[in-house]
Structure formats: C-alpha cells, structure tokens
Amino acid sequence: MQNYKKIVGSISIVTVSYLMSRVLGFYREIMLANWTGLSEATDILDLAFVIPDFLFYLSAGGYLAITLIPLLNKQKEDKINDYFLSLLYGLTFIFILLTSVTYFLRYDIADFLNVKNLDFFIEILTPIVFSQLFFFIGAILMAFQYFKESFIFPALAPVIYNCSIIFFGWINSTSPEETVKGFAIGTLVGSILGHLIFQIFGVYKSGLLFKLLIPNFKYLKEYLFISLPLIVGQSIAVMDEQLFRYFGSLLETGSIASFRYARRIALLPVGIVAQAIGVASYPFLSQLFNHKKFEELKILVRKQLSYLVILNGVLMIFGLVNSNSIIKLVYQRGSFTSIESGIVSSIFFIICFAILPWSINQILSRTFYVQENFWFPVVSGTSVTLITILYMTQIKNPTSLDFALVIVLSLYAYSIILLLKLNIDGEKLLNKGLIVDFIKSVLILSVSYFAVQAINLSNSIFSLLVSLIAISFIVFVSLKLLKFKYINLTGRE
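^ that's the sequence the OP posted. Answer follows.
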C-alpha cells in the first residue's frame, strides 16, 4: 500500500524528532526533581500552568491542525496562501485578547487555585501566560507545515523549548524557588525561539508567502464554526493533568509534583510512538477520506490501533513491573529523597495503566476529526470529565492515589466510548478482527507481566534491561505464534 509506506516514512522522521524532544523533556524533569524535590515551589510551577494550558488546549493545542488541515485540503491551490494568512492574522488577534484577559485575571486565577504564596505565584505565572501567545501562533504555523507534509520544524520546536527551560533552570538552580523562576523564564524564551521564530522559518520553507492582508471574516467564521465543539469542551485525554493539578492543590504539599513526575515518565512512550503516529498520519488519513478511499482508511486505522496496543503495552508492562526501580533510578538524587521516591512510584504504578488509552486516543480522536465529526469526541470527553469531577468531589479523605486511579479509569471510559461509536462509511471500526487482536494482545501482555514479575530482579539498570528484553521476547514470540489480523511481522501483506 503506497500511502501506508509513505506514512511509515513520515512517522520515522517524526518519531526521531519526538524522541529527541522527549528525552530532553525527561531530562528537564530529572533536573527539576533534583533541584526542587516535592516542594511547594514545584507545586506552584504546575499550578501556574493550569489556566494557560487549558486555554492552549482549547484554542490551539493539536486542534488547530485537526481543524485547519481538512479546511486547507478543500481550497484551490491558488487560494491556499491567502486563506491561511487570513486565518493566521485573525486568530492571532483573538489569541492576543485571550492572553491579555488571562493576565488581567491573574489574581482571580490565584484565588481559584487556592494559592497560598500569592506573590511567588504571580511572578511565575506572568512569563508563562505570555509564552502561551507564542504557542498559539506556533500551533497555526505548525498546522500549515503538517498540511504540506513537512514535520521537521514542528517536531524540533519542543527540542528548542526544553533546552531553553533546562538552561535557565540550571543557571538559577540555587534554591527550589529560584529554579522554578528559571523554568518560567525558560518557558517564555523557548516559546519565542522554538514555537514562533523557528516556525516562521518552517512555513517559509514549506512555501508560504507572507504578505499584508485584511483577515477575511468569512474564513475566520468558517474555522470558528468547525472549531466550536473543540472550544466549548475539552477532551478527557488532555484534561487529566489539569484535574489533578486542581484537586491536588487541596491535598498535602508535593501532591501535584508527585503526579507531574509520575506522569512525565508514563507519557514517554505515548509522546514518542503514539503521538508521532497520530501527527504524521493525520494528513494522510484526511486525504484518504477526501478521496473516498474508505476501505484503505479503515485498514490503516485498525493497523495503527493494533500496533499501538502491543507496542505501548510492552512499555506499560515494563513500567508496572519496575515502577519502584524506575522512579529511584530517574529521580532519587539531590533534593529528591527515598521517601519521595516511594510516594511517586505508587502513583506511577497507577498512571502506567493510562499508557494504553492515551496512545489509542491519539488515533481514535483524529479518525473522528478527518470525517469532520468534531462534536462526538468532545461531547463524550466533556461528559466523562464532568462525571469524573463530580466523583472526585465526593471522595471522603482523598489521597493522591485515589485521584490518580479515578483519572485513569476515566481515560479508559473515554477510549471505550470512542471505540464503540467510531465508524467509517457506515461500518463500525471495531470489527471482529480488531477485537480478537485486542484480546490476544491483553493475554500476551498479562502473561509477560506475571512471568517477569516472578523473576524478582534487583533494582539496577542491568535488571531493568533484562526485564525489558524478557517482556519484548515473550511478546515477539507470541506475535509469531499467534495469527493477528492487523499485525504482520513478516513484512508481506
């Protein structure tokens, strides 16, 4: 399948770039843990991101590409440049207004989040708020590059961003408070360099011709109409961290930070594998749908889901088996003590189960979006989120573990809803072949978990490597012995 081979090539490029950025992001978290531990300063850093991140996800985070690519595909070749510039200028104006309103409401935000150290919070919040403006603009510029099937500059943006945060955190690492200030400044500088300047160069290389023009209100209205369901509701797939940040602020000091550290490690396979597949394949999925190649589209999506479940399932099992050892190896140094390792590893064990729904949601949601079905993922995600919030408010004497478990269960609920509802050209995506593949994958992963757990390896890098090899070997042999509908290791279709 020509399209499939093309996608594999694009995925490879994006995966390498994402690997670089995720490794740097991972190193950033290691340094933050080393310099600050589970401190109040770290909690405040996370709280400062709650509202800016929420606005970013609503108006820009991933959704700009989701809505812009289908719209750009519909335009005549000679109209694409002006159409895109019209949206770029119009949306930038809206983003400036959003950023300004957020800044003027900074004290109200602090009150809403139950912030105790007000002055420190405002100092951290200010550069983070303004950094979101450059993320907004960068997201639009990245969408154009995705449309042109150019992935290098967008994928390198987080590399520059993380390097900036690490650098400014390092030069300010005299105390937890100063480190966090450095991280906030690095966020602003990194967003300007990686998400604005770098992306301007990227769209220019992709063929965009910049010129002054008055934004066409018709184009802007069309975009906002399609984006409306993404603006009025937020998918549970990106709400989990925001929920924990808010509810974690009601718990003991360090609760938010503990979730942050655990989540960052668990998200590694999602960011490297699932997100790369989702980002790189989206333009191709959109093209297949527009050209009414529905059978090819169905096969491609089913293949992606089957491979994601088994590949990220291996990493999930690896995390579950070695949760304590991983946290100790990664974080336990400097201000991060053995007691804090125990707290984070307990949360990490639970969060590992979220790897699978995080992964498949990257594909499921995009498959809805290429069919211009924006409402269902958002309405269902919002419904699950509201139920989750309601349940979390009813937990008596809650702990971090309670909140983490509820959030993970909500992620699975959202994934199941999407799977059951998703259809292409009137045919359910979840057919017998895909169900059988999922069941076989779960059985294989379960066997590998209990087999490696029984080995009872020591806490060392060598033991971690042995367990990963053992899990991978069991899964590989099982894939060879069991016939899968949508997984083929022979290289022949």
